[in-house]
Amino acid sequence: MIIAYLALPFAKYKVAATRAAAEDTYHILQKETNTNIILNMDVPGNISTRDFEKMLKKMCKEGAYWGTVAGLYVGTEYGVERIRGKRDWKNAMVGGAVTGAIVSAANNNKKDRVAMDAITGAAVATAAEFINYLT
Question: What membrane topology does the annotation report for this chain (predicted)?
Fold first, then answer.
């Protein structure tokens, strides 16, 4: 049970790193294509060391960010489960709300935005829990 909870944040690292890599690859290829069109060249694009380092840093930052968010959510959900002694959708709702509020507050958002992000986090987590029960 706990192993499954602990494995979830590592899955988020992969998703975030893949997203960052895909975005940067697109931008690099787009830049190379535009340069080749302007210079009227048919040379395949090369990735510079600077672009590669920038892409790698972005992947690491995205992975760390989303891993932290996932860890916060899983920890909160598990803590609520332990306190309540029940495993149901309400734990996901509280975990999502707390995670949404903390992440929003950490980004220096105003109170209204923090409340909206808490509601959104609770809704997304609860929906995911219900979908998980259906499958």
Answer: Multi-pass membrane protein
Q: In terms of C-beta density within 10 A (0-12 exposed, 13-18 middle, 19 or more buried), how is residue 82 classed?
A: exposed
Question: DSSP 3-state assignment of 1?
Answer: coil
Residue 32's CB is within 10 A of a number of other CB atoms, namely 18
pTM, full prediction: 0.64
**DSSP string computed for 65-131:** HHHHHHHHHHHHHHHHHHHHT--SHHHHHHHHHHHHHHHHHHTT--HHHHHHHHHHHHHHHHHHHHH
Q: Smallest Cα–Cα separation from 5: which of 72, 89, 85?
A: 72
Tokens of 109: 């958002």
Token pair listed for 23: 């975005």
Yes or no: say if 120 and 97 are a contact pair by the CB < 8 Å rule. no
* 65-83 residue pLDDT tens: 989 999 999 999 999 999 9
